[in-house]
Design brief:
This protein is α/β, with parallel strands linked by helices and 98 residues long. It is built from 5 helices and 4 strands; from the N terminus they run E-H-E-H-E-H-H-E-H.
Length: 98
Amino acid sequence: MPTPVFIGDEVSAAGFRLAGIDTRVPERTAIGREFEKALHATNLVVITAEFAAAICEETLHTAVRRAVPLVLIVPDAAGREQPNDLDRQVDRVLGIEQ
């Protein structure tokens, strides 16, 4: 079974590294390439919201919808940028938003 891959900032990567996850901290210009490589190397890609924002929106949405590998967008350790609230988006689409 391939090791999960984390893509994000160095501080957040330190925590994921302790959990045995393959961590990658690419330069801003290389985030998209690292993301594409990770999609072909593992069953789980964890990426911070800040780094996900640097990826082509269409590429990111396609990867998330595909579900294999599973792509999780998480906040970074400093909480600078939060991922979209999936529960709220589903409620809004279903017309049951409170």
